[in-house]
Design a protein that fits this description.
With about 300 residues, the chain is α/β, with parallel strands linked by helices. The chain is built from nine helices and twelve strands.
């Protein structure tokens, strides 16, 4: 599968630059994501992973460059990019039920002055069933476990009937069961031809469960199949002195002063052919309050 063939691309970025206060957070990112592909977006803390996702859904302005969804500007023909933010960005005390949150995924298609119809309620019911949370639909989101809350927002994203799904650090802060539920969902989405981009610090999962990897650190360092991306040269370029190479294994040391985990040492390893071991996740500083639908009024945040 070519990652550069524009004719096969579902999502195309050409020279995309995003800046904060005049300083580029992402510089001239160019890549093409084939239809139905699943891409792991990896990089150190502050590399711009969340920034990239928010630019794709219009929550941050693109300073230069172009984003195309199926060869057109996003939103010009009803194509949808759905975004599930990091859990820390959501106000879980917001007084709303599970059903209400998932129905918010329909607002982009309904508009603000139409009431949900039978078709919308059927989509919501299907998404609740898909994520195994139909029995929770009348519960307040603040009463749920972390894994259940994640499934609510995944259901909301699927209710948008997206062509592209963006998941920002979905493996962080969830137990093994929730992680496996998410991986099973990704497998089903692959069968449905939905294009998925997932930001993660877990390079082992990125190497073993995704066909493509985008390695960022303020710019695109490498993009392609995991074996071609996770090389010593690329990892050294992305992580600098944080990348340690020991006996064919890469160990990434990251400290997060001033952020969650302050003062703790976090280690991430990448063994291309090793069994799947659980690694601690690290939340990066490149996040801002946002709603997954791209609409700042469409739900808890």
């Amino acid at each position: 599968m070519s990652v550069t063939a524009a004719a096969a691309a579902c999502l195309t970025l050409e020279g995309v630059t995003v800046a904060y206060d005049g300083k580029p957070a992402l510089d001239a990112v160019t890549l093409s994501v084939p239809h139905g592909a699943q891409v792991a977006v990896v990089g150190p803390n502050g590399a711009g992973k969340s920034t990239l996702f928010k630019a794709l859904v219009g929550l941050l302005p693109v300073r230069n460059g172009t984003v195309l969804l199926r060869d057109r500007l996003p939103g010009t023909r009803g194509d949808t990019i759905a975004y599930v933010p990091q859990r820390e960005e959501i106000d879980w005390g917001f007084p709303v039920t599970v059903h209400d949150v998932v129905m918010m995924g329909r607002y982009g298609r309904l508009g603000w002055f139409r009431r949900p119809g039978t078709a919308d309620r059927e989509v919501v019911a299907r998404c609740l069933d898909e994520l195994g949370i139909a029995e929770l639909e009348r519960r307040a989101i603040g009463e749920l476990s972390g894994g259940q809350q994640q499934r609510v927002f995944l259901a909301r994203a699927l209710a948008q009937e997206p062509h592209v799904l963006l998941l920002d650090e979905p493996f962080t802060g969830v137990d093994v069961g929730a992680r496996e539920t998410l991986l099973a969902l990704l497998a089903r989405l692959r069968e449905q031809g939905i294009t998925v981009l997932v930001s993660t610090h877990d390079m082992e999962t990125a190497a073993q469960r995704f066909e493509l990897v985008a390695l960022l650190n303020g710019r695109l360092i490498a993009y392609g199949e995991p074996a071609s991306v996770f090389t010593p040269d690329h990892l050294s370029e992305a992580f600098g002195g944080q990348a340690l190479f020991v006996g064919g294994m890469v160990v990434i040391d990251q400290c997060c002063p001033g952020h969650v985990g302050d003062g703790e040492e976090h280690r991430h390893s990448h063994e291309p052919h090793a069994p799947d071991h659980r690694r601690p996740d690290v939340r990066g500083p490149d996040f801002h309050s946002a709603d997954q639908s791209g609409d700042p009024h469409a739900g808890p945040r």
